[in-house]
Amino acid sequence: MNSIILYAAAIILKIKTKFIRIFISSIIGSIYAIILYITNLKIYTSIISKILLSIIMVYVAYNPQNVKKLWKQILIFYLTSFVFGGVSLYLIYVIKPQDILIENGMFIGEYVLKVIMLAAIVAYLVIKISLKIIKTKLSPKDMYCKIKFKLNGKEVETKAMIDTGNLVKEPITNTPVIIVESSLLYDVLPKEILNNLDNILGGNLDEIPEEIQNEYIAKLRCIPFTSLGKQNGMLVGIKVEEVEIENEEESKLSNNVIIGIYDKSLTKRGEYRALVGIEVI
Fold first, then answer.
1. What is the pLDDT of residues 141-152, one digit of tens each?
2. Tell me, which fold does domain 140-277 have in CATH?
3. Which of 94, 115, 128, 223 is most exposed, with minimal Cβ within 10 Å?
4. What is the pTM of this model?
């Protein structure tokens, strides 16, 4: 059960961790549960000891890089535990209520494996759906972030709006796309490319010198998108070497993002010059 909870929390947190770390952390939690079951010492039943156990288990399982990430991981670990525990107890009560006992403050009984697995699936879905709903309810201060991306060895920095409706992806590799105004890219891409985006999408490369074609055309991607103003639009995209996204809470680095080049202004007043989807953040 510990392993399932830790693994589910890792998926929700989008943490890549080794199975051996989750296994060791699960053993630590199980040893504590056994001690709690066979003894009734206050040192083991106190809230402080339980918090310390959670910190140790999360640290062993996920190896957080700083205190802020540690507390975030502990919060999701508790959230997953509460939902999983509630669903498990409910299913066990419905299926086999006579097997539930309480010993030293702990619920004990015959835990049918299929009930545990079903509870894990239900709990995971409940948490994922809840978090998606929360993410779509962003406050105004959370609507913007700063992005910095590297292309051809040069960096471009701008303000971006977090667009919950931006689900644009490169269709072949399923890589997420950040939409950026073309005027930001004249220092990192040839003007012959940026001035002929429509021609490139139409397959007309006459205006582009051959040496630029040889260097860039194979790197460009055609990105389909849908918007209220354009039901079947296309963008020229290019994969960047690195993207850093910064907001008030943290910064995130990624090398798996494509820049979609938009040849107009995203806003009249220039409040932001890029659109970032929730999935990228």
1. 668 889 999 988
2. Cathepsin D, subunit A; domain 1 (2.40.70)
3. 94
4. 0.53
